[in-house]
């Protein structure tokens, strides 16, 4: 009985217990508001598929993989590639929601790597200037993609497919030009120098914390007392922070509303005063800058750059975005979904090596996951909008 | 200058050429406060060109356009909107995959916060949406629900309610009933009547004479880019209006052949 009273907050419950009535007024509630069931609310989340997929994949590896996969070191190994892909996938997801594609981001990673490497090694620019230059070049390339798409009204698929080949080719030519014939540019790590800025873009964060944890036997350590995981790779932090920012912008700000509107129906959005062209151009610049960020992170970690950097990343990013709930037609999707999509990617690509399965099953998984996600998204969309 | 008697919109001898095509060759029309002006005409009569001119999409080649007594020249739909002329286009301006609230405030989101950290005030937005929908008798159970779940008539009403909420003085409705069933149509017509009672001027474009006659105060008939005439409701019978719109004879003949059902 006591429990019943405590739970009696709805208007109906108050009416059935008149003794409680005069003491406190029943909560003011709009009688036209139907309680939306929790299930409906969950079903409306575009990232539902990605979360469900992640749970399934986790269960699968829990049953088949070696236990070390779920140790701290194993999780970091999974998250590192997930983070690199995820940074691209989050930007690609926003662009897809805005109704466009960017197939040039993979090549953009290589091209931005070249710009960054050349700035440091060949032109001997200081690290801050090199980083700034890389982002400026990437943003400019993104703006060009956007303007061509908007002005010609061609599908961005084709426009950026051209970019895919042009940027890759320019990277090859540029690398040979800078190095005098090689397609790999070395010595970037040493020439970049040290400093606060560098530690934002390479190495591990929270090393003090991890040493302390190891000293107190809270995490695994080597025999000499060093922790087995020395810290969190900064790329993972970038990945998490960007996912948070992108989700907030998308769901809570005007720009987010404009992104949905631009992708949902560009004409309707224009009629309502949404600056569609500016939104789309901005999104193209964002994806290009995400590619530049991945380039800087990976080049600083590896200390060198080469022409094959970022190969096929454009497709993997789009797949992660689709697994995350983005519709190919635009106007619907989620940034946090792309976050989970990228983690699924990392988990499967790394996780298969912890099992007895041939790791080449990865490609099969990739295709199957994409197909499933598209079918699932279509079904959910019809459910959500009551499309007839 | 501006008094209650000044027409909200006064267009005189509007001419619009597209290259060698003369789309409008001298069209005049006025819209007063609290009045539904129906713009009738068959396909190709110039209805669309006229409303696009009034709503700032096209600039008239020659002719005078006054809003509340002041001569205006719009260079974009945004200008017209700022002058209080809102157009609800046939293809709606609603995005099915977005929620009712997001659609309602699209392009004019209320924000809180400061500097770059502004966010949409969703509490306010949901409350307003629910309130405005309630006023027009649409029971949206949940402002998060997608516009795609609303019926065609409800969507038209949401689009109209949005224009009214954001301070429109004149509503231009481009064939709002053409794709709707009977119940849906009566819902939209009822709402047009409500809007008129608030003192707004309405231009109601249609080629369905029955719909026009149900809510219209005055009727302007267009044919081949010209005004055939403007009539008040007491001046003209629905059958005459029908004939006028179709260009007369042929339809009368057909009507006789079919037993008066056209």
Model description:
With 388 residues, chain A is mainly alpha-helical. Chain A has a single domain, classed as ABC transporter involved in vitamin B12 uptake, BtuC. Helices cover 68% and strands 2% of the residues of chain A. Chain A contains 18 helices and four strands. Chain A has helices spanning 2-7, 11-16, 38-44, 48-64, 72-97, 105-121, 127-152, 156-179, 188-192, 196-201, 207-215, 234-252, 254-264, 266-271, 276-302, 313-323, 335-351, 361-385, and strands at 184-185, 204-205, 232-233, 305-306. A two-stranded antiparallel ribbon of chain A has the order 1-4. Chain A is globular and about 65 Å long. Chain B is α/β, with parallel strands linked by helices. Chain B has a domain at 9-94 and 169-178 and 200-257: Rossmann fold (3-Layer(aba) Sandwich). Chain B contains nine helices and twelve strands. Chain B has helices at 47-54, 77-82, 100-104, 122-135, 152-165, 182-197, 209-215, 238-246, 249-257; strands at residues 9-18, 21-31, 35-40, 62-67, 70-71, 85-88, 111-114, 117-120, 170-174, 201-206, 218-223, 226-232. In chain B, the strands form three sheets. Chain B has a six-stranded mixed β-sheet, sandwiched between helices. A four-stranded antiparallel β-sheet of chain B has the order 2-1-4-5, covered by helices on one side. In chain B, strands 7-8 form a two-stranded antiparallel ribbon. The longest helix of chain B has 16 residues, at 182-197. Chain B starts with 8 loop residues before the first strand and ends in a 5-residue tail after the last helix. At the A-B interface, α13, α14 and α18 of A face α2, β8 and α4 of B.
